Amino acid sequence: MYLPADQQRKIKVPNSHPHKPIIERPKLSPNLHEAVSALSQLTVSLPDKRRGKAITMSQTHYRTIWISDTHLGDKNTQAEQLEDFLRNSTSDYLFLLGDIIDLWKMSKRAHWPKAHQQVMKIIFDKAKNGTDVIYIPGNHDPFFKDFDGLQFGHIGIQKEHIHTLKNGQRILLIHGDQLDEKVECARLLYRIGDIAYGTIVTLNRWLNGLRKRLGKKYWSLSGALKLKSKKAQSFIDRFEQQAVAYAKSKQVDGIFCGHIHQSKLVEIDGILYGNDGDWLESCSTIVETEQGELTLIKWAKGHQITRETAATKGLLECPTS
Questions:
Q1: What is the CB-side half-sphere exposure of residue 247 using CA atoms within 13 A?
Q2: pTM attached to this predicted model
Q3: Taking the C-alpha atoms of 153, 130, 88 and 43 in order, what is their torsion angle to the nearest 10 degrees?
Q4: pLDDT by residue (tens digit) across 212-244?
Q5: What is the per-residue pLDDT for 4?
Q6: In Å, what is the CA distance from 61 to each residue of 55, 94, 152, 200, 256?
């Protein structure tokens, strides 16, 4: 049943959390301090526009947008694609489901080009002009978890959040790293997997740079490897099952998250499970239209490709065109 906006509940989860992170928080380098300081000043440089800014003809308006794993600060992030999507989209709600700024990468070597700064500026601008923006930190931006319940330049920071869809369904929003221990993801295995994934994503960037010059379509190398790997698929399945169990323990109708970079929108055992993917390779997001329809989309600069799930057979083979 649809609930009017004034009757919809936003439930704040207490600071205490039953799941401990499986990896330590990174120490902030001087360069990272500068980046965080720059972020805190973004709202000062933004124009003082009226809340409820008019939508241009080129923009699509959604009721809700979910984005995660943008990994700003990582050289492999497709920030130009993300900027293009954000410029072409408006929404009443924008949920950032973790790993937005990659503090792990930036604590080792700061990488903050103009495109990454521009993405953050657009997000702050949206928040200032009336979009309800909630930031749920992940395992690559754990620094922000210390600010649970606070506002950061019109952006609310929460460890978890419950959002009510237009049809009245209550959806638990998390990053997903709190499920790692439940999926038996050991510390060493996690680190090895993270390093291997970083190498694959770098290869993916080089490969698709070449494909672009040859006039060929984008193709996800790691997406294909995930679908061909039984171990990777087994991990994804276990993660989804644990997410569903966690949603049931919270007595909600669904759970949306990120973390594993595997986009999906499906019902599992009576629970609506959504994973909005990432912006290192898949450039995917989940949106809720003004009519209440949920859609998982992949963004190709200037337009969207609608799809039900990411697990399609087409990802298994490298396209020739």
A1: 30
A2: 0.72
A3: -20
A4: 677 776 666 566 556 555 666 787 899 999 999
A5: 40
A6: 8, 12, 24, 34, 20
Residue 49 CB neighbours (<10 A): 12
pLDDT of 180 reads 82
| CB-side neighbour CA atoms (13 Å) of 295 | 16
Residues 117, 195: contact at Cβ < 8 Å?
no
Distance CA 214, CA 221 (A): 17
| Domain covering 26-45+58-313, topology | Purple Acid Phosphatase; chain A, domain 2 (3.60.21)
Instruction: Let me know: does 165 contact 171? Beta carbons within 8 Å.
Output: yes
Greater confidence, 41 or 258? 258
Write down the pLDDT at residue 211. 61
CB 294 within 8 A of CB 278: no
Bigger pLDDT: 261 vs 161: 161
* Residue 49 near residue 128, CB atoms below 8 Å: yes
pLDDT at 153: 84
Count other Cβ atoms within 10 Å, centred on residue 45. 10
Sign for the CA dihedral angle at 65, 11, 275, 1 comes to negative
Rg, the chain, Cα only: 19
What is the model's pLDDT at position 255? 98
Q: Helix or strand or coil: residue 64?
A: strand
Label residue 28 exposed, middle or buried (CB < 10 Å: 0-12, 13-18, 19+).
Answer: middle
The closest of 285, 244, 272, 66 to 169, measured between CA atoms, is 272
Flag the least confident range among 51-60, 68-77, 283-292. 51-60
Rounded CA-CA distance 256/163 in Å is: 10
N-term to C-term CA, the chain: 45
Average pLDDT score over the chain? 76
